[in-house]
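Data availability (excerpt). The following record was deposited with the supplementary files.
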Amino acid sequence: MTDGLDLGRGRFIPIAELKFQAEPSSGPGGQHANRSSTRVVVLFDIMDSSSLTASEKATLARKLASRLIGGRVLRVAIQSERSQLRNREAALARMEELLREALKPAVPRRPTRPTAGSKRRRISAKKRRGETKRQRRPPRADD
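Predicted structure:
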């Protein structure tokens, strides 16, 4: 995974296109947490990437819009592990998962047809409603 992000279907983002930052983790942890920069932030500028096509960039910008900084940079921060290396691996895995999910082609909708039973129930309900309304009418003079 250190070579880059494998997005499947022959798509690959080299590690050189990612920017890494290490920060101190938040929360409890005493001296270790206060002195160690174990939180890892991975930044990926989608619009500057030479690994993505224009249509892939547009798809990512649309599907990940709420996660992008300035409409361009995807940011993933992980601080769940005590080790910076494990947090880095987890952040890369999360970034890869986000990009894979966003680039997954949409499954075309297959129109379904009503079942025979549902057609029967619909017709009988219409007949019942019609009969109820017919019974509400005042009797006709020729009856």
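Summary of structural features: The helical segments are 30-35, 54-63, 84-103, 116-136.
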